[in-house]
Amino acid sequence: ELKVEQNPLFLSMQEGKNYTIYCNYSTTSDRLYWYRQDPGKSLESLFVLLSNGAVKQEGRLMASLDTKARLSTLHITAAVHDLSATYFCAGSKGLSTGTASKLTFGTGTRLQVTL
Amino acid sequence: GEEVAQTPKHLVRGEGQKAKLYCAPIKGHSYVFWYQQVLKNEFKFLISFQNENVFDETGMPKERFSAKCLPNSPCSLEIQATKLEDSAVYFCASTRLAVSYNEQFFGPGTRLTVL
After folding, report:
1. What does the CA dihedral A36, A38, A44, A47 come to, rounded to 10 degrees?
2. pLDDT band at B85 (very low <50, low <70, confident <90, very high)
3. Do residue B41 and residue A50 have CB atoms under 8 angstroms apart?
4. A44-88: pLDDT as tens digits
5. Which candidate in A67, B25, B73, B93 could, as Cys together with B104 as Cys, close a disulfide (CB 3.0–4.6 Å)?
6. Would you list the DSSP string of B37-48?
7. B90 contacts in A (CB within 8 Å)?
8. What is d(CA B67, CA A23) in angstroms, rounded to the nearest whole number?
């Protein structure tokens, strides 16, 4: 059974600083996802990572995947207040080719960017 | 539609009452997933459908929970005889099979409060 662990659980950082959120998973995961959730809101898809060495960037966020280490990271560059939210990583393990399987979520990292 | 729609936004029930939640997936998406998010941010997978067929029900508490996706109708999640611990936000997500990834798009959620 796939297990996903995230750390830290809570991150307070100053505007302009850099930081990384880590996501470890226990067994082979076909795909690794990063989502953002604002308080009281739904999940917004940020990145989908498919293969070893995959790196995706959008604005101040960059996600990477190392399948050998079973590790994904979400790096925040020069944080701004608007990035304050909870970030979740999630993995999926395909049941068979051509099917869509459930997501297994990490515990989430609550990011607070202070002025 | 182009977004996953969920109704109602909020639902309040007394213990022992029935609760029914609805989800309309994005048009053209053949998979529907139900997740439960409890107060500590933890996401729990409940059930998924491929069109109107149950695809994966490994997360469903079978005693009181049931779900359906019928043609030309919103999908539904029903909880008979609600308990206090059912209080949570229930998210529906949908995806279509793509060549390389199955990004799940989430609805706004239904907040269920059991008193």
Report:
1. -20
2. very high
3. no
4. 999 999 877 889 999 999 999 998 899 999 999 999 999 999 999
5. B93
6. E-TTS-EEEEEE
7. none
8. 31
In this structure, what token pair is assigned to residue A20? 């990384």
Nearest C-alpha of chain A: how many angstroms from B7? 14
The length of chain A is 115
* Token duo for residue B52: 């109107």
For the segment A5-42, what is each residue's pLDDT rounded down to a tens digit?
Answer: 999 999 999 999 999 999 999 887 778 999 999 999 99
Give buried/exposed letters for A19-42 (b at 16+ CB in 10 A, else e): bebebbbeeebbbbbbbbbeeeeb
Report pLDDT for B54.
94
| Cβ neighbourhood burial of A89 (10 Å; 0-12, 13-18, 19+) | buried
Is A36 in contact with B86 (CB distance < 8 Å)?
no
Q: Do B95 and A100 meet the contact criterion of CB atoms below 8 Å apart?
A: yes
Give me Rg for the CA atoms of chain A. 14
Residue of B9, B104, B111 for testing the chain A interface, max A β-carbons within 10 Å = B104
Chain B nearest C-alpha distance from A102 (Å):
7
Give φ, ψ of B54 to 5 degrees: -65, 130
Helix (H, G, I), strand (E, B) or coil at B15: coil
Kindly report the number of other CB atoms within 10 A of residue B102's CB atom.
21
